[in-house]
Structures are given as structure tokens and as C-alpha cells.
């Protein structure tokens, strides 16, 4: 309580720098929250996998033969080495490169070199990596270490209404573009979460200008695009989720995405169908440049 003043909104800088606090967050937040792992279309086929993190725990996200998705700790139960070192791909099994312990795509230990000689009586079924709970929402894959946490639908709560603005504009839903991009940002995790949750203020100032200029389509003059200032900001009554939009002014969307995407989002048949599906013209065509965080790190 001494670090956060809920009445004024002021925060003690220690929330970004205190190592003891961070260790508590790893246990109490990242160990109990639903964390985004990726999109279902990134692993469409049986054996497709990608690696990720839950807090500082490395995990594997793997599509099963029955279509199920499993998330388990990417750590061999023998000596703690990574089971898989690739970012993603397709595999029938995974073998630890240290001593050759092999696991199937469900994370079950299936082979141990010199098992009878080195580990007589070993029960392989007891030595698979820790499994996380897995649930999905509109194509997004979430995982949770806590067996007692509320289900994903309850956890997302009110935020689903705002997530649907992006995820449910068409019957086909959304699809992830192939490829992997990584950004390493030397900062506390709350900086990124806060930026996407509530800080649209910086979008039209110097901090975003370099990015906007780099992506500005030919023929578009930035000096003619005044930053929008009218919008709405949303905060969940429970869960720490937040989102916001500009209303009716497409300038920032135009500067970032270009005229074709802006037109698709705001005009024509696709925009009209989105409005019908989402229940209003405002939701389908007038809310621009959405920013959002599903607590703690889905942004």
C-alpha cells in the first residue's frame, strides 16, 4: 500500500527497481495469472511447437494429435537443461541434448539411455516436465501454473468486450502472420504493460514519431496529420486489464497503417459487416488505434 496511492495515482519508483518485490511478483503474479502464449494459427498441425516464457520459466507450446494444445516446462527433469532450444517448428519428439532423455510432444518421458543400468526401477510416467493449465479465447492461447486460479473466461471478464473489437470482427477471426520477431527491452515488465494499458498520451509525441515516420506510406505528409485527442479509456473493475481508443479520427491509424488498411477498417463492406457483428457502427468503424493490456503482460 505504501508503494501505490490509489487516490492520486502516484507510484513509488521502487515498483520498477526493487528486486525483492520482483521476486514476489514472479511467484504471486506470474505464478497465478493467465499468460499469453501465442495464437492457435501459429501451431496449426500436430507436432507444431513454439517456445515461450511464463515469467522467467521457459515453456513449450505444442499442438497434439487430437488438436489439444499443451504447455509444459521446457526443462529436462534429469539435470534441468532445456528440452528444446529452437524457437519453433514441427517435431515427433524432443530429446535433451545433455544426456539424451527423450519426451513425446505431450511432455511425457518416453526414453532414457541405459535406463535399466543407470536408473533401475525408474517410473518414466513420474518424470515428465511440469504441465500448465491451457485455455484459449478467440484464437489466443493462455496458460496458468495455478491449479486453483479461476478459469480464463472469468479471468478476462469485462475485457472480452474490448478484445472482441480486434479479435471478432469477422467469422474467420484472426490469423497470426508467420515468422518470429523478438524485442529485448532492458526494463521492468510493468513499463510495457502500463504503456499498452493506459498511455496513449505518448503516441502523438516525440516517442512515437520515429516509428510513424518509418512506416509512413508514400505521399502522406506527417505535418498534415494532427494527433487525435478525443477518445475513451477503460479499466476493468477486477483483474488489472485496461484498454483505450481514439474516437472517429483516423489520422494516427492512417499514419501507422496507411490508407488501404485505414479504409478497410473504417469504410466499405468489411467495416459494415464488422459493425453488424460487433453490434454498433461505433464499435465497428469509429474506434481507432486500440491499445490494450490483459494483466499482466498480454499487450
TrEMBL record:
UniProt feature coiled coil, ranges: none
Gene Ontology MF annotations: 2 iron, 2 sulfur cluster binding; dioxygenase activity; iron ion binding; monooxygenase activity; oxidoreductase activity, acting on paired donors, with incorporation or reduction of molecular oxygen
InterPro entries documented for this protein: ARHD_Rieske_2Fe_2S, Rieske_2Fe-2S, Rieske_2Fe-2S_sf, Ring_hydroxy_dOase_asu_C_dom, Rng_hydr_dOase-A
Pfam families from the UniProt entry: Rieske, Ring_hydroxyl_A
Rieske domain span: 34-143
Keyword vocabulary terms for this entry: 2Fe-2S, Dioxygenase, Iron, Iron-sulfur, Metal-binding, NAD, Oxidoreductase
Family: Belongs to the bacterial ring-hydroxylating dioxygenase alpha subunit family.
Protein's name in the database: Dioxygenase large subunit
Species of provenance: Rhodococcus aetherivorans
Amino acid at each position: 500500500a505504501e508503494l501505490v496511492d490509489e487516490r492520486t495515482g502516484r507510484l513509488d519508483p521502487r515498483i520498477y527497481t526493487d528486486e525483492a518485490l520482483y521476486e514476489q511478483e514472479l511467484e504471486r503474479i506470474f505464478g497465478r495469472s493467465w499468460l499469453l502464449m501465442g495464437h492457435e494459427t501459429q501451431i496449426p498441425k500436430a507436432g507444431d511447437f513454439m517456445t515461450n516464457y511464463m515469467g522467467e520459466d521457459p515453456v513449450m507450446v505444442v499442438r497434439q494429435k487430437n488438436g489439444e494444445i499443451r504447455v509444459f516446462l521446457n526443462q529436462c527433469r534429469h539435470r534441468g537443461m532445456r528440452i528444446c532450444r529452437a524457437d519453433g517448428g514441427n517435431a515427433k519428439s524432443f530429446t535433451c541434448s545433455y544426456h539424451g532423455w527423450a519426451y513425446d510432444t505431450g511432455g511425457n518421458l518416453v526414453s532414457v539411455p541405459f535406463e535399466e543400468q543407470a536408473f533401475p526401477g525408474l517410473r518414466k510416467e513420474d518424470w515428465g516436465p511440469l504441465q500448465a493449465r491451457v485455455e484459449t479465447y478467440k484464437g489466443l492461447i493462455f496458460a496458468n501454473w495455478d491449479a486453483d486460479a479461476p478459469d480464463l473466461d472469468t479471468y478476462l471478464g469485462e475485457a472480452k468486450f474490448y478484445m472482441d473489437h480486434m479479435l471478432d470482427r469477422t467469422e474467420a477471426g484472426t490469423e497470426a502472420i508467420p515468422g518470429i520477431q523478438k524485442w529485448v527491452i532492458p526494463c521492468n515488465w510493468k513499463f510495457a504493460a502500463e504503456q499498452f494499458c493506459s498511455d496513449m498520451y505518448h503516441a502523438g509525441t516525440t516517442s512515437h514519431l520515429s516509428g510513424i515516420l518509418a512506416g509512413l506510406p508514400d505521399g502522406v505528409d506527417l505535418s498534415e496529420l494532427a494527433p487525435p485527442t478525443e477518445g475513451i479509456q477503460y479499466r476493468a473493475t477486477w483483474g488489472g486489464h485496461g484498454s483505450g481508443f481514439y474516437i472517429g479520427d483516423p489520422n494516427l491509424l492512417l499514419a501507422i497503417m496507411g490508407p488501404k488498411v485505414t479504409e478497410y477498417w473504417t469504410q466499405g463492406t468489411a467495416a459494415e459487416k464488422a459493425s453488424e457483428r460487433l453490434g454498433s457502427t461505433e464499435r465497428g468503424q469509429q474506434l481507432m488505434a486500440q491499445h490494450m493490456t490483459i494483466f499482466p503482460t498480454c499487450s
